[in-house]
Design goal:
The protein is of the alpha+beta class and about 425 residues long. It contains 15 helices and 17 strands. Helix 9 packs antiparallel against helix 10 and helix 13 runs parallel beside helix 14.
């Protein structure tokens, strides 16, 4: 974050206490400013504004009518500190004083212009630069921090199906939930970009993990213009220091923690974990992590895929609470046609579980390359009589085991099926 020194104007128009009111009026009009500091030598002894000059005799001295309770700011103070002083004192300009000497002036318009660059106009949350600065400042002060990186799952599908206006409303609603559940005394919430948010907190790790759980629940409760059931993957980094850091570069350490938290959120998405700490991620070999076939409410009993010259045919059998459900589908024999046939067969099998009037359709199948291995994501559109929501599931993908697309489909459904059926 920039400091006052970066924005202040070093050429300052000043008045002396023995200047006349007439001279002060002339100087304010000539330079088109809202006030002038009054100095003796290099020291600020007062300030005179048009309000102070109103109704005064032109021959009176500035020293007799100036305001002596002057608010000043240090050149090394952050821009946000200057803004707070201006708000508290209701002034448009602040003299910048260093070692008792006037070194510049900073105007409200310059402060607001800079803060506009640091704040997301949609959510009114700070941008990542403020996150990095706060994290570095806390580390520099010897405080332990946790970075919490929040990535909404499959959010581009919300924009695709409902339009960016509705998508923006969802982002604002999520930002509002994050703001309500955090404490400015310990937490700084920022919009990292797109559908990503990040928080730096001085909470202990256990408390930060509890906060992450509450945030995930709050995001799931967001409902905007028929969009509901949003999910998020959260990555955490920091909060487990065993001893004092030696020879630490705070900005570099802050960047490392943000990067680790971001990677942990990606790994959480791949592993179908809502929350994952970076240390857990580093301890895993994601490419070798077993992806269980059995899931919370549904399990895969069998799959049969036949690829012929003209078509690909898939049959999938699922089990739930002792019941069996079978679905079949056909697709193109080339490209992703066989995988889509398997996913569609899974959706057809799931149709028997849905209440009357509910519909489940494949929205998109996407592949993502991660450093530790590939993943396949399946986005499903679930339409109920009252609303529509997007369900997203992700599973590690191996070309030798294409049934990963079925596991991803089941994960998408199992995340919401129990709650949705309970409220049908």
């Amino acid at each position: 974050m920039k400091t006052v020194r970066d924005l202040m104007r070093r050429e300052v128009i000043t008045l002396r206490p023995d200047a006349s009111v007439a001279a002060a009026i002339q100087a304010i009009l000539r330079h088109r400013v809202g006030g002038l500091p009054v100095v003796e030598g290099d020291a600020v002894v007062g300030v005179v504004t048009p309000r102070d000059l109103l109704g005064q005799a032109l021959y009176r001295l500035v020293g007799d009518i100036m305001t002596t309770d002057v608010a000043t700011v240090s050149p090394d103070a952050p821009v946000t500190a200057a803004y707070r002083i201006m708000e508290e004192r209701q002034v448009g300009r602040l003299p910048v004083v260093e070692d008792g000497r006037l070194v510049g002036i900073i105007a409200r318009v310059d402060v607001l212009q800079e803060l506009g660059k640091l704040t997301d106009p949609l959510t009114d949350l700070p941008w990542p630069g403020t996150l990095r600065q706060r994290a570095a400042d806390l580390l520099r002060a010897g405080q332990e921090i946790v970075v919490c990186f929040i990535d909404l799952d499959g959010f581009r599908l919300v924009n695709k199906r409902h339009g960016h206006v509705v998508g923006d409303r969802c982002i604002v609603a999520v930002a509002d939930r994050l703001r309500r559940l955090t404490d400015p005394a310990t937490d700084l919430v920022t919009r990292y970009g797109g559908d990503e948010f990040a928080i730096v907190t001085t909470r202990r790790l256990e408390s930060a993990e509890s906060l992450a759980e509450r945030l995930v629940e709050a995001i799931a409760a967001v409902e905007v213009a028929g969009v509901r059931g949003l999910t998020a993957s959260v990555g955490l980094a920091g909060g487990r220091r065993a001893g004092e850091r030696a020879e630490v570069h705070p900005p570099a350490t802050a960047d490392d923690l943000i990067t680790l938290a971001s990677r942990a959120s990606t790994a959480a998405k791949q592993l179908d974990r809502r929350i994952l700490h970076a240390r857990e991620m580093e301890a895993m070999r994601l490419a070798e992590a077993p992806a269980p076939v059995e899931v919370t409410r549904l399990r895969l009993l069998g799959v049969h895929l036949t690829v012929e010259t003209a078509r690909a045919a898939a049959a999938v059998e699922l089990g739930r609470d002792g019941e069996r459900f079978r679905g079949e589908a056909e697709g193109a024999p080339v490209g992703n046609g066989p995988l889509r046939a398997m996913a569609q067969a899974t959706v057809n099998a799931l149709a028997a579980l849905l209440p009357e009037g509910w519909r489940l359709a494949i929205e998109e199948i996407a592949f993502t390359a991660f450093p530790a291995g590939d993943a396949v994501s399946v986005a499903l559109a679930l339409a109920t009589p009252s609303a529509e929501e997007i369900l997203v599931g992700t599973a590690p993908y191996d070309r030798d085991h294409p049934d990963a697309v079925i596991r991803a489909t089941l994960k998408a459904v199992n995340r919401r099926l129990g709650r949705l059926l309970a409220t049908a």
